[in-house]
Amino acid sequence: MDVLTPDRILTIAGFLGVLVLVWAVIRHKRAPLAARLATGRKLELTETLNLGGDSRALLLKAEGQTVLVVMGRRSGTALTLLAQNEGAAA
């Protein structure tokens, strides 16, 4: 009983070749794919910051407004709506 027959080796090599080809295409077209997947989202995670221990701060954009979320396992969750700076340059 042969475990590694030529047809099995060719099948595995072909499968690995297809995987490498798909990986290369995705790496090459990463930015357009990410932009296409991000369209129409109402909630976007802008930044995260670990505050130490089990607390963290999240900066979210929800329907055009910026929200600061501070959450911890024992301290609960706090939401703060941040003011929009219309004339500020980034």
Describe it for me?
With 90 residues, the protein is an alpha+beta fold. The chain folds into 2 domains: 1-39; 41-85. The protein contains 2 helices and 4 strands. It has helices at residues 6-28, 30-38; strands at 43-52, 55-62, 65-72, 76-81. The chain has a 4-stranded antiparallel sheet with strand order 1-2-3-4, with no helix packed on it. Strand 3 and strand 4 (76-81) form a beta hairpin. Keywords: Membrane, Transmembrane, Transmembrane helix.
Structure summarized in a few sentences:
Helix content is 36%, strand content 36%. It is of the alpha+beta class and 90 residues long. The model has no long low-confidence stretch (mean pLDDT 85).
Query: N-to-C SSE series?
Result: HHEEEE
> What's the N-to-C terminus distance?
68 Å
Q: DSSP strand (E) fraction?
A: 35-45%
Count of helical regions:
2
The counted number of beta strands is 4
Mean pLDDT: 85
The largest sheet is:
4 strands, antiparallel
Ranges where pLDDT stays below 50 over 5 or more residues in a row are none
The computed structural class is alpha+beta
Rg value: 23 Å
Count of the domains: 2
Strand order of the largest sheet: 1-2-3-4
What sort of overall outline do the alpha carbons produce when their principal axes are compared?
elongated
Helix content: 25-40%
Keywords: Membrane, Transmembrane, Transmembrane helix
Transmembrane segments: 6-26
Organism: Roseovarius mucosus
Protein name: Flagellar biosynthesis protein, FliO
